[in-house]
Every structure is written in structure tokens, then in C-alpha cells.
Amino acid sequence: MSNASTPESGIMIQLDGVTKRYPNQDRAAVNELSLSVKAGEFVVFVGPSGCGKTTTLRMINRLVEPTAGTIWIDGEDVTHVNADLLRRRMGYVIQHVGLLPHLTVADNVAIVPKMNGVAQGERRERAEEMLSLVGLDPAQFGARYPRQLSGGQQQRVGVARALAADPPIMLMDEPFAAVDPIARKMLQTEFRRLQKLLKKTIVFVTHDIDEALRLGDRIAIFDSGSRVAQFATPLEILTNPADDFVSEFVGSGAAVRRLSLLTVGDIIRRDGIRSPEPMVNPITVFPDATVQEALEQALTLRAPGISVVSAEHGTVEVSLQQLLLAAADTAEAPV
Amino acid sequence: MSTILTGRSSGSQVSASLWMLPAIAGSIIAGVFVYISLATLDSIEARALDAATILGATREHVGLVAISTVATILIGVPLGILLTRRAARRISPAVLAFASGGQAIPSIGVLVLLAMLFGVGFWMAVVALVVYALLPVLRNTMVGIQQVDPSLIDAGRGMGMTRGMVLRSIELPLAVPLILAGIRVALILNVGVATLATFTNAGGLGSIITTGIVLNRLPVLVVGSLLTIALALLVDWLAGVGERYLRPRGL
What we know:
By secondary structure, chain A is of the alpha/beta class.
């Protein structure tokens, strides 16, 4: 179909020159987009509305058929395979959840396994397992109908349903946008933990840059011309925005927001900084605490600095001033 | 008739009213039979109102309603589904206009026209009833499918359902309450309109009413009318019970 070569191994999703042009529209909704997502990576598409991020997502499972270009999934050109079968290999979560109101929660979760011909007993087990995974007690919620659940609970079921067939890929279109802010934060935290556990390849669409920075391993920032302005790690985007559009989209306070992405361990490992003289009553933190958390604790307790305890470096004392300056100088978190 | 009649809401006040209709219908029927057995009837009245005549007319009436309603469902529901498919969206207004026309024409007109064109008899009356009752079933089926939340269809497609699976496991189950409401309207319409079938020699309770009018016997006319009303109430009640049990749970 296309001259693009097969993606190298370890790439789960690759888009090569993918274009979507709707009839009677001058501008392409997505224009010649190429990007790749590594296996197990959490990639977030973020941008203003109309930037083509959702269209791009929907082209990956071919709910929108690309006008031109090639889409590779796990080394296979899927541009012309059976779209229904392709979609059963990917979890799909949308903002409106889309639970079928006439099916119980457990039956909703078991939809894709049922389509795949999994026997009933096994389906039930699978559904219960998935519900537990997303923090819903199957005994309590399995037999309920979707309208008997809160918005946050419904989206948990939506995630469980997308995970039920154990697809290597999850596509998520603003999944947490419609739930209230407290439930959203919980869902984000838990989902991030879940992804670390299950190692799914995730493409996640949002218009909320804070959500993108909190969740993504890498973030693709789309500008209004459906161009990817920058595709990089959260820290890289905050530290070195590619252009004015990116820095404006990220908004003010980038330097402060970076503090929540760096851990105290990053700082002491990279810079080897030490307080010149012993401090009076520093607070003790673990190396995996973020700089923001350490700062919050130190300011609350009026401590002059922090004392980091790690096996690698022993006990290291760092003053608040050193911590902040070092954080500002640290561009990239070492892996 | 362009409004869409929705199913009745479920709840405790429904279960109270659930037994109202059969109670009223039962008292009407009981009253009619008490009246017939107690009143002094002349020979014409007695012949028009003997048990065999009444039972025969009722049986004919129920037959007309049952067969025409089944035919209406068999035509209206699949046609309604077909007209909501993407390929047929363009012709659906025309078909709806035809169905509306069938209903806008006075029922007696449809009957007489069909009788003039195709002759008289039971089956001709069934055809006329189907033409007349098609609209509510057709329209409610279409609206029932069209009102399904598009995000549910998106979710279904996104999970890998084919269009047929989306129709079977999302669109149709969610359209069931509206389809049932349309069928209920068709049933009630048919009970009433079937009284006119007597004019095309198709029998039914209408023949008792007509006998009363033609022979100027008020008791016969009233008995025929009351039995029709009682039948309509019973049919409505049965349809309501059916709606309660066939409507998908969770809605």
C-alpha cells in the first residue's frame, strides 16, 4: 500500500503519513501525521478542540477511515484488515462511557469476551476479576444496572470492559472528562497505577494539559492546525517547550509544575549536592517522594531543609534553596 | 397521531391502576349479560342478542384484531428497522408520508375503497386494518431506534461489534419500549376500527351495532357498543401487562 517500511520491533502503534480529509472541507482534519508509540508506553494526545486528536485516535481503530497513510499495529499493516476484528484487539473507552443500560454491569464487562466466543462461566470469572481490578466489588456491583452507578463508578466499569479481553492496546477518548474533579483525580491516580501493573500500550486523548502531564510517559501536543507541535516527555515539555504554541498551551507556572515530576532521588543522584553544614531539624523524606511533596512537608513544618534516606547515598541533607535550584537545573529525570 | 406515545412509567401507582381496566371491563360484560337475561326483549332483539350470536361476533372481532395486529407488527417493525438503515434514510420520509396518509384517510373510507377495488370479506377487512394501524408501529419503531444515544453505538462499534450486532444487541433492545407503545396504540385502534368491518361483510361486534341501528333497536345497539368498549379495555390492559414484562430491565 505505502512505501513506508515495517516499523522496528518494540513499536506497538505506528502512523505513517496518516491523513483524514472529509468531503466538502478545505482543510484536512488530520494532515500527514506520523508518530509511533512504543509497547507499554502511555502516550497522551493533548490540544485545543478541533486539533484532530480525537480523529487521530479514532483512525487507530478505524472508526474513522484514513484518507491516506498507513497504520501499523504490532508490526502489521492494519489499514485494510477487517475493522471489526481489529477493534476487538483494542480496548476503547469514551467520555460518555457508553455502558449498555439494559445489561448488568457484569454483562457489560463481558461483552467483548462474549463476542470472542469465551464460555459463560469463564466470562463471569473474567468480569469479576476485571471489576475487582478497577476497585469495584463484583458481589456488590456485578448484578446492578449502569444507571444505579455514579459517574465515576460507571467509568470504572468502562475501563474494566475495555480491559476484559486483555487487549495489548487501550484507546481512551477523554475518559475522565465527565466525572467530578475529586473522582477524576482518583481515577487518574489509580489508572496510572493500573497501567504500571498491566503494561498496556495506551493512547489517551484529553484537552486538559494537567491531566496529560500527570499521566503521560510522552505527550503529543497538537496545535490547531492538526500538526504535532511537540512529542516529548512531560519534563521535556515543561523544560524546553518546542515553540510559542506549546509554552502558551502549557500555561504559566511551568517551572513550579516541574517540581511534581521530579523526585528527590533524581536531585541527589544527579547533582550530588550536600548541605555545607548540618541542619537543625530537617524533615526526613524518601527518595521516591516528588520535590513538590518534600517542599510541601518542609514548608508545613517550617523545616530549613530535607534529609533524604536511601540505600545508595546513605543520609543526605539538602537545604530548601539547594533543592529548588537543583530542581530548576535538572532537565530530565534519569530513568 | 404524529405524537409518539411513550410507554407508561412503572411504579406503584401503576400496579394500583393495573387492575382498574379489567375490573371496569368485567363489570361492563357482567352488566350486559345481566341486562340481557333480565330484560324483556322482543323476538328481533332476542335473536340479535342470543349467546351464540354474541360469542360468534366477539370471536370474529377478536380474530380481525389479532390477525391484523400481527400483520401490522410483521410489516411495521421490519420496515421501520429497514428505514433507519443508512441506505434507506433518503426514502424514509416518503414511506412515513404514505403511512401517515393511510391513517389520515377516514377508516370507513379505507374500508370502502379497498372493498370497491378488491372485493369484500374478512381478509379485505384485515388489509384495511393493517393500512390503518401501520403508522404508529412504523413510526414508533423508527423513532425508537433513532433515539438511541449515539455514544452507545460508538461504544459498541469501538468494541468491535458489526452493524448487525449493534442493531440486535443495542438498538433494538433499547427501542423495545417505544415499539411496544406503538403496538399498543395499533391494537386499540384496531378494536375500534374493526367495528366498521361489518360494512364489508367481515362480521365482528360491528354487526351487532349495525343490526341495532338498521332495525331501530336501541338495546341491541347499546349492547354491541358496550361489548366493543369492554373488549378495547381488556386489550389495552393485556397490552399494558405485555409492555411491563417485555420491556428490558435496567431502563
